[in-house]
C-alpha cells in the first residue's frame, strides 16, 4: 500500500513538472483508465493461468470437473427440498492449489480420518483428497445430474499417486446426511447460504453430542460461518475471515471432543 502511494506520488510529481497543473488534471482520466486496464489485463492473465492449471488437472486425471454450473441450469425432481434449492449455491470447483493448502493448515494425519465433501458437485475435491491416505472419501451432492457426472468421473479417475481408493458419491441433501461415526474431515466450499448452514450445523452439533469424536470442518469461501461459529462442540483452529478484506475467506474448526 505504502509502495503504491509512493509510486502515485512520484507519478503526480513528474506529471506536474512536465504538464503543469492544468495538463495534469486533463491527463487524470486517461491515467485512471490505463491503470484500470493494466489491472484487468493482470487479472485476466491470472484467470487464464488458473484455467490452464485446472484443465491440466482434468486431463491428467481423466475427469471433467472444471466448468461452473448454475443451479438454474439443473433439473431437480419433486423430492428435492424446495428450501435447499432456494438456498443452494452453484457448482464451482475448488481451485487446485486451495484444497492442499487448507488441508495442510488443518495439520491432521489424513490416515486417521474419513473425508466428506458436503456439496461435492462433479467431484473435484474427492479426486484431490484421493491423493492423501484418507480411510474413505464420500461426496454428498443434492443434484442428481451433478452426482451422475461425479460418478462417471470416479469411474474414469486415474492418478499414479492415488492413496485412497474408496471413493463414494451419494445423491443426498446435506441437511439429511448422517455424518460418519468415526474421525472425519467435513469439507465445504460455499455450498449454501445461512438457512441450510444452520440446519447442517445443528445436525453436526447433535451428532457430536451423541457421539463425541474427532471432527475437523474445513469451510472454504466461508460466506456463512455464523452457525458453525455458534456450534458449542466446535472451536476455530485457523481462519482467514472475510472482514480481513480477503476475497476467499476460510475457517477451519475442530471438535472440542477430539482425541
Ligand atoms: C461451490 S460447489 C463446490 C463443489 C465441490 N465441493 C468443490 O469444492 O469442488 C457447491 C456444491 O454444493 C451443492 N449443493 C448446494 N446445496 C446443497 C445441499 N443442500 N445438499 C447437497 N449439495 C448441495 C451444489 O449443487 C454445488 O455442486
TrEMBL record:
GO BP, sorted A to Z: methylation
May I ask which residue range the UniProt record assigns to the signal sequence?
A: none
Keyword annotations = Methyltransferase, S-adenosyl-L-methionine, Transferase
Among its keywords, does the record have Amino-acid biosynthesis? no
Q: Which residues form the Methyltransferase domain?
A: 116-210
What domain of life does the native source organism fall in? Bacteria
**Pfam families (alphabetical):** Methyltransf_25 (PF13649)
* UniProt key word Transferase: yes
The name under which this protein is listed is Methyltransferase domain-containing protein
Source organism of the structure: Sorangium cellulosum (strain So ce56)
What is the organism lineage in this UniProt record? Answer: Bacteria, Pseudomonadati, Myxococcota, Polyangia, Polyangiales
Amino acid at each position: 500500500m505504502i509502495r503504491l502511494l509512493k509510486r502515485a506520488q512520484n507519478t503526480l510529481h513528474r506529471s506536474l513538472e512536465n504538464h503543469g497543473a492544468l495538463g495534469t488534471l486533463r491527463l487524470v482520466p486517461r491515467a485512471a483508465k490505463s491503470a484500470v486496464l493494466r489491472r484487468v489485463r493482470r487479472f485476466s492473465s491470472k484467470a487464464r493461468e488458473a484455467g490452464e492449471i485446472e484443465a491440466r488437472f482434468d486431463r491428467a486425471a481423466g475427469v471433467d470437473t472444471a466448468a461452473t454450473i448454475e443451479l438454474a441450469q439443473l433439473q431437480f425432481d419433486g423430492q428435492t427440498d424446495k428450501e435447499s434449492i432456494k438456498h443452494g449455491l452453484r457448482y464451482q470447483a475448488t481451485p487446485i492449489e486451495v484444497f492442499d493448502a487448507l488441508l495442510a493448515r488443518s495439520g491432521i494425519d489424513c490416515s486417521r480420518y474419513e473425508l466428506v465433501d458436503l456439496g461435492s458437485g462433479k467431484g473435484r475435491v474427492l479426486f484431490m483428497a484421493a491423493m492423501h491416505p484418507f480411510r474413505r472419501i464420500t461426496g454428498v451432492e443434492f443434484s442428481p445430474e451433478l452426482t451422475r457426472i461425479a460418478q462417471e468421473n470416479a469411474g474414469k479417475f486415474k492418478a499414479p499417486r492415488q492413496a485412497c481408493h474408496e471413493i463414494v458419491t451419494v445423491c443426498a441433501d446435506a441437511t439429511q446426511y448422517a455424518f460418519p461415526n468415526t474421525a472425519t474431515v467435513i469439507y465445504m466450499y460455499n455450498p449454501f447460504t445461512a438457512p441450510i448452514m444452520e440446519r447442517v450445523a445443528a445436525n453436526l452439533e447433535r451428532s457430536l453430542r451423541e457421539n463425541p469424536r474427532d471432527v475437523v470442518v474445513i469451510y472454504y469461501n466461508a460466506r456463512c460461518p455464523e452457525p458453525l461459529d455458534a456450534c458449542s462442540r466446535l472451536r476455530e483452529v485457523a481462519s482467514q475471515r472475510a472482514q480481513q478484506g480477503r476475497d476467499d475467506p476460510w475457517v477451519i474448526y475442530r471438535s472440542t471432543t477430539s482425541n
